[in-house]
Structure formats: C-alpha cells, structure tokens
Amino acid sequence: MPSPTDPIDDDSLAQAHSMLFQQLVSGHSQMALMLMGRLENPHTGEFVDPQPEGAKVFIDQLDMLAVKTRGNLSPEETAALDKALETVHAAFAEILN
Hints:
By secondary structure, this protein is mainly alpha-helical.
C-alpha cells in the first residue's frame, strides 16, 4: 500500500477521480429515482411514496454538476452524466403529470 508521501501517478489519479465522479453521478441519480418511487430502497427492499421535493434536490445537484463541469469531463463522464440527467428528468416529468 502506498504511503501518503509516495508520489501519485497522474494517470492513476485521473482514473480514480473519473471513477469517483461517475459513482457520484450514479448515486445522485439512484437517490432521485428512489425518492420518485422508481427504485427500491436498498436497505428495506421497498419502494417509497414519491417525494418530488427530495428528488428535486438530487436532480438540481446533477444539473449543477453538468454546468460547473462543462468542458472538463472525459467523453465517458459526459455520457454518464447526460444519461443520468435524461433518466431523472424524464422520471420527474412523469411523476408531476
């Protein structure tokens, strides 16, 4: 295991950051979908009653990430974020109608 004083390879750091970014996007997307009653709560195995206000917080955070990271993401990161946004926006529109 590397020590905190070992130099970190730039490529390894970039890969780790990319993975963490995609996990963040996935986690926010899953939370939004769970709060819209589209995914089971992983702890209870049950669907929750839709809570649009709670879901909107996670959707707004994903929207903010898209704006703040524009032009700074890899094609894979951009695709993951775009897909997540498409999914949560469509689900949100459905629960509002």
